Amino acid sequence: QVQLVESGGGLVQVGDSLRLSCAASGRTFSGYIMGWFRQAPGKERKFVASIVWSGGSTHYSDSVKGRFTISRDNAKNTVYLLMNSLKPEDTAVYYCAARLGNNWSEFSRDNSYWGQGTQVTVSS
């Protein structure tokens, strides 16, 4: 059974940095793509960033490109999201996801594993 556990969220100020972690367990993730998504109150869940477990190819949404960096530590089975220059519009619950394959656009609620989410609040 795949388990994804996010951590590292919190309350920060505009311009601050925060690093989220996603500890993955239950199988080897070679052949998987890992993603970060976020959901603001009253809005739908949106793609933030992804990384192919083998090879490390990354993809970002336009809203975070240049500010956020996704990475993974194979030895720890952990995916990270380093968020710099945070803005109030980055406030959301951030979810980690995993699915077999390498296409970031194919994540969905039904075909992917999801964590429970971690709250990020950016205060102005």
Could you please describe the fold and organization of this structure?
Strands 2, 4, 5, 6, 9, 10 and 11 form a seven-stranded mixed beta sheet that branches. The protein has a four-stranded antiparallel beta sheet with strand order 1-3-8-7, with no helix packed on it. About 0% of the residues lie in helices and about 50% in strands. By secondary structure, the protein is mainly beta. The protein is globular, with a radius of gyration of 13 Å.
* Strand and helix order: EEEEEEEEEEE
- What's the end-to-end separation, in Å? 40 Å
Radius of gyration: 13 Å
The beta-strand count equals 11
> Residue-averaged pLDDT, rounded?
95
Structural class: mainly beta
* SS strand fraction: over 45%
Count of helical stretches:
0
Q: What would you call the shape? A: globular
Q: Helical proportion?
A: under 10%
Largest sheet: 7 strands, mixed
Which ranges are low-confidence, i.e. pLDDT below 50, for 5 or more consecutive residues? none
